[in-house]
Amino acid sequence: MIRIEHAVKTFSGKTGEVHALRDVSLHVEKGDIYGIVGFSGAGKSTLLRLVNRLETPDGGSVTVEGRDLATLSRREMQAWRRKIGMVFQQFNLLESKTVRHNIAIPMRMAGVPKEQINRRIDEVLRFVELEDKRDAYVSQLSGGQKQRVGIARALATSPDILLCDEATSALDPQTTDAILALLKRVNREMGITILLITHQMQVIQRICTKVAVMEAGRVIEKGSVLEVFGRPKSEITRRFVRTVISDRIPSSFLDVIAAEQRPFRVEMLKFIGDAVQEPVIAALCRREGLEVNIVGATMQELQDSVMSIFILQLIGDEAHLHAAEEIIDRTGALRERMEESVWKAS
Question: What pLDDT is recorded for position 342?
Fold first, then answer.
């Protein structure tokens, strides 16, 4: 659906050159909800703007539905953009105009007949559950309602792709949940592929199927949400994951661990999907010569699946500790031995 290959983009300014993108490659398949996460300045917005050709790469290529965007004329690109809807952080609506007027804008620009415009407005307003706001002025709406109008406008031309630029960053948590649920419906019921950028890992957790993590113009990690949340490889990815899933030992408990005189290990176990049903901890507790202390636990829903995390202190001699690790590994759980420096430093 979307293929970005070795994209490079540099901007020149008063302070010198800014390398916004450095050899970025990204493949978005049809039906994906693909999230790009990173801090400000990571290159997320520039990457998004390559897809609707608001920016052109200095190097590399951008292909959408098999068409290399660099080969399209201006007129062809104008027609092509109707296949790509855009949802903005600050809504980008005309406050002094009605909801109906705002949704009609892209269709009027495309020369759609008036009768067809009115029919489509009713369809998209019904989908975003704002039929009663058809003739209300945008200035009268709440933030969540404005974003629903923004989504309705993006859907008006029946796009194949929806680009979301920090679409929930200006909203409160409850409204954010409602907008994310709406975007998920857009993907499932309309079959629209979604590419979104965000600095909120909660957004990735709630609706995305795949994720790419960006830093300083590079994609440093990518894969399915389950893969990236389950086995984050880079430190910045681990920092993002920790904003929604805690994998740290509470500081108040470090002294308790450090005081243990017998041999022990601290293991972090991640159970994903069917592995959640495995009675691993019960099996460990039944082992003679082994004590099990649950230091921390959490459960999260990811990509229509469930991931449970347990941090265990396993106490026993080396043979029993090794046997315990073998039991865990046979279940398919992801196991990571936590560094001794964490509690020894306390």
Answer: 55
C-beta of residue 291 within 8 angstroms of C-beta of residue 316: yes
Q: Are 59 and 217 in contact (CB under 8 A)?
A: no
31 in Cβ contact with 77 (< 8 Å): no
Distances (CA, A) of 142 to 87, 171, 184, 188: 16, 10, 21, 26
* Regions of the chain where pLDDT drops below 70: 340-346
Q: How far is CA 124 from CA 9, 148, 156, 179, 200, in A?
A: 36, 10, 7, 15, 27
Provide the token pair at 18: 């800014």
Q: Degrees (nearest 5) of the Cα angle 52, 57, 60? A: 110
Strand order in the sheet with 16-28: 16-28, 2-13, 59-64, 67-68
Backbone angles phi, psi at 32, to 5 degrees: -70, 150
Given this model, what pLDDT does residue 343 score?
54
Which of 258, 271, 253, 227 is closest to 345 using CA atoms? 258
Residue with tokens 């909120």: 200
What pLDDT does 346 receive?
A: 45
pTM of the model: 0.88
Residue in the structure block whose two tokens are 């009027």: 108
Residue 69's identity, in one-letter code, is L
- List the one residue out of 193, 151, 195, 192 whose CA is nearest residue 171: 151
The pLDDT of residue 332: 82
Burial label, 270 (beta-carbon count in 10 A; 0-12, 13-18, 19+): buried
Could you give the CA distance from residue 295 to residue 252 in angstroms, rounded to a whole number? 11
What's the one-letter identity of residue 105?
I
Task: Render pLDDT for 61-84 as a digit per residue (tens, 0 to 9).
Answer: 999 999 998 898 888 888 888 899
- Name the DSSP letter for residue 137: B
User: Residue for token digits 């450090």?
Assistant: 258
